[in-house]
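Take a careful look at the protein record below. Let me know whether the C-alpha cells fit the sequence:
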Amino acid sequence: MIADAISRAERRTSGEIVIVYAEASSGYYFFALLCAALIALGVPLPFIHLTKWPIEYVYLTQLAVFVAGVLLVQFPAVRVALAPGSLKRRRAHLRAVQQFLAQNLHTTKGRTGVLVYVSDAERYAEVIADSGIYEKVPQDVWDELVTNLTAEIGRGNRVQGMIAAAEQCGDILAEHFPPGPLGEDELPNHLIVLDAERYI
C-alpha cells in the first residue's frame, strides 16, 4: 500500500521519495545503565546515616539495587521512558540524517530526493530534502506535512499517515519538479523498516 502510494506520487514528478519507519532511533542502553549506576551510587547514603547496618550489608544492598536496575533496563520501553526528550529528539534526527545518506537520496541527478522519517518510540517524524528541493520549497511546507503525518499517527492510523505523506510529497514535488522525459525511477519505492535493537 505504501509502496503503491510512493510509486503513484513519483509518476507525477522527477523527485525521489523514500519513507523510512524505525521502531526506535536508539537503544538508549548507555543512558539507561548510567541511570541504574547513579541510583545505586546513592543507595548507601540513607543506610550509612540512618541505620547501624554493617558496611557489608550496605554494599550488598547497593549491588542488589544496581543488578535490579540492569535487569529492568533490558526492557526497551523502560529505556525509552528514562531517556529525556532532548536526547530522543537528537538521536531521532541523527538517525534520519544517516538514513538520508544510507538510502542514497543525496545522489539523485537533480538533487531532488526527499526522506520521510518516522520513529515510533520517540514519537518523532521529520522530512529531509536535498539541496535542489530546498531551493524551491520552503521549510514550512515540510513542517505542515510533518504536522499532518504525526496527527494521523497519533490517531492510530500509521499506515494511512504514511500513505498521505507520500501523496502530499508528490503534490509538493510535482509543482516544482515535473517528471522527466524518460520517467526514471532511481531509488526503490518500498517502505524501509529499521530494527532498533542494533542501536546502542
About this structure: The two ends are 32 Å apart (CA to CA). The longest strand covers residues 16-22. The mean pLDDT is 90. Residues 2-26+84-198 form a domain with the Diaminopimelate Epimerase; Chain A, domain 1 fold (CATH 3.10.310.50).
